[in-house]
Write a structure and sequence with these properties.
six-stranded mixed sheet, 416 residues, globular, 17 strands, transport, 19% strand, D-Maltodextrin-Binding Protein, domain 2, alpha/beta, five-stranded mixed sheet, 2 domains, 18 helices
Length: 416
């Protein structure tokens, strides 16, 4: 998607750095194109290894398409490997030396904003983001009422399963699945553990997810019941702990029949299961006789520009292009990265696609928008420790009330 820019005449470069990028473009773009003149631009880009594979280089293809769409630039590219998950860690070391354009998981947004390392989208970028995405996805790249980054895929997880082991009815209930065959679940990972607590234990994060002063809250009695349920799951002979992606290896080896992960594992799972490959939304689970829907964290992966970039206008244009409809379609064709662009996912090509349906259903109906504020960092280690206390049998059905109460008290004082 080509982005047009307008320039506020008379702004100094220093002042322009303080404004959304809509004010930093050039009104001479069209003239430059019509006259055939070019501007020499250097852009450094960080992207995952998978997007730069020798035989399947999506980044290189997208850069060449961007050059074709912007003949006013003569671009020298410098590409390096930094995954979306590692973006904030790498950027924070020195924002001024970080890439001009990078891809990130939206849970890092608060840290990137605090570091002054991510640019607010300009007017045209914002229009693109709004046209392509649902409000929940727009919220996923919003902080303090401002929008940062251009989403290119939803970032959530769902369930892969072996169709020879489970029926269409079985996969509606986690308990039914555990009664039938081995299931892997990352109980010691806070990104997954909350899915079994938000509904059953009234777990909330910072009010609407944006107010750190409201903290992380939970109902102690309900948490006790939910903890007893988690203990029963951990003690089930068909439960297998997925630790550091061991679940995928177990699935490939045939040791388990269901695995919770995201679209990034689709190709490997399809290869492992062949004709028995299945992808589905999240099942329900039962605590104290009541059925609850598992609820995953949801967010996005997005492209962003660095406000410290020397060629800030071109950097922002390329970040927007990485999230354009054209680029998202190519991303899916080359790597099965499911588009966030609703005009693509609602098209005939994607209707009936099992993988797209699983991810879209979770993102739209079975999810909680993951908070992007920095205070969210306090959740991960605490949740991991609680999950480990269950899988290591330190927390049991007998002491669940005591352990649940202590954890609730710990969560209540976080960020206050």
């Amino acid at each position: 998607m080509k982005i047009n820019w307008t320039k506020a005449i008379g702004l100094t470069a220093a002042a322009a750095m303080l404004l959304p990028l809509a004010a930093c473009g050039s009104s001479n773009d069209s003239a430059a194109k019509s006259s055939g003149s070019t501007e020499e631009v250097a852009l450094s880009v960080w992207a995952p290894q998978e997007d730069q594979a020798k035989d399947n280089n999506w980044l290189d293809k997208t850069e060449k398409a961007f050059e074709k769409a912007h003949p006013e630039y003569k671009i020298t590219w410098k590409n390096d490997v930094v995954s979306e998950a590692d973006a904030a860690d790498t950027v924070e070391k020195d924002p001024s030396a970080a890439a001009d354009v990078y891809m990130f998981a939206n849970d890092q947004l608060g840290r990137l904003v605090d570091a002054g390392a991510i640019g607010e989208v300009g007017t045209n970028e914002l229009k693109q983001v709004k046209e392509q995405n649902t409000q929940s996805l727009i919220d996923s790249v919003s902080n303090g009422g401002k929008v940062y980054g251009v989403p290119y895929t939803t970032n959530t997880w769902f369930m892969y399963y072996d169709k020879s082991a489970f029926s269409a009815d079985d996969i509606k209930s986690l308990d039914s699945m555990l009664a039938k065959a081995k299931v892997a679940f990352p109980m010691t990972n806070g990104w997954y553990l909350q899915a079994l607590l938000t509904k059953s234990a009234d777990l909330t994060f910072f009010g609407d997810g944006t107010d750190a002063s409201k903290g992380i809250t939970v109902d102690k009695d309900k948490l006790t019941a939910a903890t007893k349920y988690l203990v029963s799951v951990a003690n089930n002979p068909n439960f297998v702990l997925d630790n550091e992606n061991s679940g995928l290896s177990d699935l490939q080896a045939g040791n388990i029949k269901a695995y919770f992960s995201g679209s990034w594992d689709a190709a490997n799972v399809k290869k492992a299961l062949g004709d028995n490959y299945g992808a589905a939304p999240l099942p329900t689970y039962t605590v104290d006789g009541k059925s609850y829907q598992m609820q995953a964290f949801a967010g996005s992966k997005a492209a962003a520009y660095n406000p410290n970039a020397k060629n800030q206008k071109a950097a922002a244009q390329f970040a927007a292009y990485l999230g354009s409809s054209e680029s998202q379609k190519t991303h899916y064709d080359m790597r099965e990265v499911i588009p966030s662009d609703k005009t693509l996912t609602s098209s005939d090509e994607f209707k009936g696609n099992e993988l797209v349906n699983a991810q879209s259903t979770v993102a739209d109906e079975q999810s909680l928008i993951q908070p992007t504020i920095s205070a969210m960092n306090s959740w991960w280690d605490s949740a991991k420790a609680y999950g480990e206390s269950i899988t290591n049998k330190v927390t049991t059905a007998d002491n669940a009330a005591e352990k649940a109460s202590a954890w609730a008290d710990q969560l209540a004082v976080m960020n206050k």
